[in-house]
Specification:
eight-stranded antiparallel β-barrel; binds adenosine-5'-triphosphate; elongated; Rossmann fold; five-stranded parallel β-sheet; 421 residues; alpha/beta; 2 domains; binds the ligand Cc1cn([C@H]2C[C@H](O)[C@@H](COP(=O)(O)O)O2)c(=O)[nH]c1=O
Length: 421
Amino acid sequence: MQSQLARACVPMAASYGRLLATDSLLAVEAADGDPLYLSCSPASSDALSRRPPPLLLPLLAAGGSAHSLTVSCPERVPAARLRAALRRALDAEEGRPLPLLSLPSRERGFLLLQPRRSPAAQERRLRPLLAPHLQHLRVCAYELGSGSRVWQCPWGEGRARWLVEKAVAAPEIHPSVPSLKGEAVFGCWKEAQGVLQECIPFIPEARGVLELWDKCPKYPQKGNVPVIVVEGLDATGKTTLTQSLKESLRAVLLKSPPACISQWRKIFDNEPTLIRRAFYALGNYIVASEIAAESTKSPVVVDRYWHSTAAYAIATEISGGLHNLPVRNHEVYQWPEDLLKPDLVVLLTLSQEERVRRLQSRGIEKTKEEAELEMNVPFREKVEELYKRMENPRCVAVDASPPREAVIENVLHLIKDHCLI
Ligand SMILES: Nc1ncnc2c1ncn2[C@@H]1O[C@H](COP(=O)(O)OP(=O)(O)OP(=O)(O)O)[C@@H](O)[C@H]1O
Ligand SMILES: Cc1cn([C@H]2C[C@H](O)[C@@H](COP(=O)(O)O)O2)c(=O)[nH]c1=O
């Protein structure tokens, strides 16, 4: 067993060097900060725990219970949807389901901490809830042993158990970085289309999106007129600016996601990352075909495009602060080669105080990200920073704090400089 697991650890060598000796590593999203890393290794029952696991030891010592559930379904769409369904079911339970990533398997799931129920009582409660899915789940109970050791005991594996300790060191890169590409950020339309095709049996609306996409030219080119994208956090003034640019340039105004699929946006917003981000990504390719068609006739202004899709996707997936983001020039920051490029991407920047003032003066329904931007400072910082890390084309930052007319004037100057008009 040990040598099999050790072999499975080999691909992790580059990024998880010092942890190779452990059999598995649990990355737990315990709070709004960096993940907490717990190692699980085989150990004889008289081994001493040198690094007692935070969260688990105090909870078990106080009579509570802890279980981890990871989804091992081989198909990515059912796996993502099963995780989301489990999350909803566990959210309705007492206790806290903390998102969990198990390495090296990369299976995702939850650590369920229950302060008020004994391990046996919690197992009685969980069994019927999990029974229909057990074939795709790995469930482990955590037990307190002598000498304050905490053991991971997988359901259905007899007396097998693993010593749980605080990991010796955190991985050098955030554990979600390796799966960003292909799970949250899509490098080409085929990847996003593939995900939505797999969704058809579960989400009928995916067929609607794909049928619209089928009618679009696949590698459209822009015409000879300027194509300007406006990006920025919510309430930075994108709508105000794009409307004015439309009038000043006699341009066509488009937005991402495009109007033709926005009727399904709420449905996909409630789906897990893989599916939701594939929807937004394919939306950009549909917008690209609209840009191509319109830019044969008049300038085109676009309210959000690929930069928003990638920035929000990465910021949502990578927990903690800026230091956890993929390094500059990482492949997730590169513009997809098959996506029509604009001539200029304007990024509207604004202080948080002024942005909140503008949000309040508007008072409309918020998306999950909008609510997150208000409450969660690291999330907001990450989105802002991510806009700046996107490459080829990069964003050109424009201060959005002056009065409307001044912002528009500045952007018109930029357009003149960048678009040779
Ligand atoms: N330069 C400006 N000075 C003062 N207020 C402004 C300025 N630009 C826009 N506003 C006001 O700020 C609010 C938000 O602007 P707007 O709706 O254009 O932002 P947005 O970026 O499109 O937001 P969202 O992305 O959420 O749709 C509006 O009430 C708008 O009138
Ligand atoms: C295009 C796009 C948008 N979002 C999120 C980011 C914001 O919170 C809302 C804003 O949408 P609006 O139409 O500009 O009001 O949607 C996203 O997560 N991914 C995207 O690709």
